[in-house]
Write a structure and sequence with these properties.
- By secondary structure, this protein is of the alpha/beta class.
- The chain folds into two domains: about 150 residues, 3-Layer(aba) Sandwich (Rossmann fold); about 210 residues, Dihydrodipicolinate Reductase, domain 2 (2-Layer Sandwich), CATH 3.30.360.10.
- It has 15 helices and 15 strands.
- The strands form two sheets. It has a nine-stranded mixed β-sheet.
- Helix 4 packs parallel to helix 5, helix 6 runs parallel beside helix 10 and helix 10 packs across helix 14.
- The longest helix is centred in the C-terminal third of the chain and has 19 residues.
- Bound molecules: nicotinamide-adenine-dinucleotide.
- The site of nicotinamide-adenine-dinucleotide has 23 residues, from helix 1 and helix 4.
Length: about 375
């Protein structure tokens, strides 16, 4: 039996998920129906992809239709309530990123999720499907590069022009999506960072808005702190032309460098503390092996054909419902990146070092105050 999936929110991203299901690109699943509060979104989907059962109210849809699973692809602020409702109604759920805007809300969603362990609940961390990221994850977990010493992550290759922001709506504002570059684009990399290298305990950050008429950041610099004086410098922007996407993870026994969709893994014959103890000179040397990894052809073709990473994550979700294989991105993993985003905002707004996690109630309070100021400035209700 195929898993019957409904997509809630068929704007830009949700319509691609629904299209992939309708075209049969997700083996073991079928598109049961779609739901959107905007009639234009529903009619546009039908015009492009043919007859499909539609709803404007997801609660009514869940009452009328015999569906197994739901993909939630609305604006961030609506994810929490919709996901909770679907869980309550006993549906498997895949929620788009970020799971919620605040960690406090994410925790309340997970409380609901914990009551239904029989359901497959996932979050769209599609970059985890990238074989290079999976390899890096496994290498770090296996101890191949030893105890981690430092990470550096530069993400300046997701350029967004003023025209992108001029499309208006909910994007690039606190009231519409709870932030800018950080919560919309970089949240993917924050998840990768914490997935591969672990969850930080503190952060000190600065944020700027450069060359764009928006009320939120498009440039972030953060210094994450981990136990035992391990640090990660994280810098991200969406205003630099032909930017960089480079993750370096240094360990005592090796290094991982991911850049331009390729990964180099260096492994050392001896770990740094041994070299330091033995060397008589003021400098150090170690012989090393280098292994190179790139995309395999199958993955590269999928990327081109069907918005690959997202479709791959949906396949993983469906397979997991069908009892085939482990869930790559469980819903509980939606929390950590949101915690990191919330902490960066508090640190940058209040110009101080912050412990992670931040106090959730406090974050919701200051976010609310900032939204009120923003709305006042923009002249909206
Ligand atoms: N995983 C990725 O790489 C990726 C890429 C783009 C967007 N996204 C995420 O997908 C989500 C949607 O982004 P988008 O760009 O498609 O936005 P969008 O504005 O194009 O689409 C959102 C749709 O949700 C609908 N909607 C809102 N409330 C609803 C409700 N209660 N019931 C039914 N429909 C409702 C809206 O009418 C709209 O059509 C966001 O969370 C975004 O962060 C993820």
């Amino acid at each position: 039996m195929k898993v019957k999936v409904a997509v809630i929110g068929v704007g830009r991203m949700g319509s691609i998920h629904a299209r992939n299901l309708k075209l049969g690109l997700i083996k073991g699943a079928t598109l049961a129906c779609i739901c959107d509060i905007k009639d234009e979104a529903l009619s546009s989907f039908i015009k492009k992809h043919g007859r499909t059962k539609t709803y404007e109210d997801y609660k009514l849809m869940l009452e009328k239709e015999n569906i197994d699973a739901v993909i939630v692809s609305t604006q961030h602020y609506f994810h929490g309530d919709i996901v909770k409702y679907c869980i309550e109604k006993g549906k498997h759920v895949l929620c788009e990123k970020p799971m919620t805007v605040t960690a406090e809300e994410a925790r309340s969603v997970l409380k609901e999720a914990n009551k239904r362990p029989e359901l497959v609940l996932a979050v769209m961390w599609n970059q985890r499907t990238n074989p290079i990221h999976q390899k890096a994850y496994k290498l770090v977990q296996s101890g191949k590069i030893g105890k981690l010493i430092r990470m550096n992550y530069i993400v300046t290759d997701w350029y967004r022009s003023q025209a992108y922001y001029n499309q208006g709506g909910w994007r690039a504002c606190l009231w519409g999506e709870g932030g800018g570059t950080l919560i919309n684009q970089c949240v993917h990399q924050l998840d990768l960072l914490q997935w591969i290298a672990g969850f930080p305990i503190g952060v000190e950050a600065k944020m700027y808005t450069k060359g764009r008429n928006i009320t939120v950041e498009n440039d972030v610099i953060a210094l994450f702190e981990y136990p035992e004086d391990v640090f990660c410098s994280f810098s991200a922007s969406t205003h630099e032309l032909r930017g960089t996407n480079r993750l370096e993870i240094s360990g005592e026994k090796g290094r991982i460098v991911i850049e331009n969709r390729k990964m180099k893994v260096y492994t050392f014959k001896k770990c740094e503390s041994e070299v330091n103890a033995e060397t008589k000179s003021g400098y150090g040397f170690v012989s090393r092996k280098v292994k190179r990894y790139g995309y395999n052809l199958q993955f590269a073709l999928r990327l081109i054909r069907d918005f690959g990473e997202q479709a791959s994550l949906i396949r993983n979700f469906v397979n997991s419902i069908n009892g085939k294989g482990e869930l790559l991105s469980p819903l509980k993993d939606g929390l950590q990146a949101v915690e990191m985003v919330n902490a960066i905002y508090v640190s940058a707004w209040e110009k101080r070092k912050i412990q992670i996690p931040v106090d959730g109630i406090y974050y919701e309070k200051i976010l609310k105050e900032r939204i009120a100021q923003e709305k006042n400035y923009l002249g909206i209700e």
